[in-house]
Amino acid sequence: xxxxxxxxxxxxxxxxxxxxxxxxxxxxxxxxxxxxxxxxxxxxxxxxxxxxxxxxxxxxxxxxxxxxxxxxxxxxxxxxxxxxxxxxxxxxxxxxxxxxxxxxxxxxxxxxxxxxxxxxxxxxxxxxxxxxxxxxxxxxxxxxxxxxxxxxxxxxxxxxxxxxxxxxxxxxxxxxxxxxxxxxxxxxxxxxxxxxxxxxxxxxxxxxxxxxxxxxxxxxxxxxxxxxxxxxxxxxxxxxxxxxxxxxxxxxxxxxxxxxxxxxxxxxxxxxxxxxxxxxxxxxxxxxxxxxxxxxxxxxxxxxxxxxxxxxxxxxxxxxxxxxxxxxxxxxxxxxxxxxxxxxxxxxxxxxxxxxxxxxxxxxxxxxxxxxxxxxxxxxxxxxxxxxxx
Length: 390
Description:
By secondary structure, the chain is α/β, with parallel strands linked by helices. It has helices at residues 13-22, 38-46, 62-69, 82-96, 107-114, 117-122, 137-146, 173-184, 223-231, 246-260, 266-280, 284-289, 328-344, 356-359, 362-369; strands at residues 4-9, 28-35, 52-56, 74-77, 99-102, 126-128, 151-160, 188-192, 195-199, 204-209, 213-219, 237-243, 302-310, 313-321, 352-354, 385-389. It folds into two domains: 4-132 and 327-372, NAD(P)-binding Rossmann-like Domain (Rossmann fold, 3-Layer(aba) Sandwich), CATH 3.40.50; 137-321, Dihydrodipicolinate Reductase, domain 2 (2-Layer Sandwich), CATH 3.30.360.
C-alpha cells in the first residue's frame, strides 16, 4: 500500500486534533498543515512528528490553494466559518481533482456544497462534508436509528447545551455562543413534506425520548436535516433540535429578535449572552442545578431519533453514544481523522458530494471511534452506541 499525502487546512483547535490523530495512521505518509498563520501551522506540525510540515496559505487565493491541493492525495478542511469558506474551498478541491473531507457545521453552505455534487462527480472525486461531532457523530447515530426501521417518516438530530462535553478548553465558549445565535436567528432549513423549506427557529417541540419520557426542546438551524434530505431521497420530515433549560429560551429569543431587526450582530448578541451569564449566573448556576429543575428528563449530549414503521407498526428509535472524545475540539477533529482513514482504506467508494451517514458504515465508524471516547468514561466498542426502541 502506498502511503498517502494529506493536506490539512486549518491549525486551530479542531484542526490540531484532527492532525494529531491522522498523523498516527499507517496509511498516511506525509502531512502538510496549512493555515493563514504559518507559525500556528508549523507549531501544529511539530506536534505531529517528523513527517508533518506546516506552511502558510491564504485560502481565499484560489490559484495558490488549488496549487497546494495538487501536492496532496486527500484534503481535510477545518477552516471556518464554513458559511464563508466552505463552498470556495470545496470548489478548489474539485478544480484540483482531489478527494475532500471537512467538518462543516453551517446549514446554508451544506446545501450549496451538496449542489456541487454533479461537478464533484464529473471530476471523479469524493467529498464527504460535515464530519465532526454535530454533524458527524450525530449523522452516524441517525443512520443507525434509521436502519432499525422499515420505513422512516421523521429523522431528528439533537444536541444538548446543558451537558458538559469534557475536555479542558474553556476559551472559545463565546465563539460557540455566537454559533448558537447564528443557528437561532433568521430562518433555518428543515425538511418538510420531502422538501427543504425555511422555518422559524427556536420553535417548541415536545420530544418523546424512548425510555426517558417527554421534554420540550427547541428547533435550531444545523446541517443534519439538509444532508438527510440529500442522503435519503423521499424522507418526509427532518429537523434539528437543541436541548436547553426553559429558563434560557426567553433570553435566546430576545437576542434572536434583535439580530433579525438588525439591532445586534451575531458577535454582539454572543457578548450580551455572556454578560447575562456573568451578571446573573445565567449559565453556570442553571447547569449546576439543572438536575433539580422540572424541565423534564435529562437527555444525552448528542442523540438522534427516528420515527416510522417496523413490521407494519408505528415505531420509534433513539440512539446516542455513552461516551465521546473529551472536549469539543477532539470530539470534532477526531471523527474527521477517522473518516479520512476509512477513505484511505478504500471503504468510501461513492463519487460526488456525500454526507457521513451514507459515506460510512455505522458499525465500522463507531468501532474506530470507541478507543477515543473517554468522557465521561471509556466503554467497550460494542457498548458505545445505545439503541432504545419503542
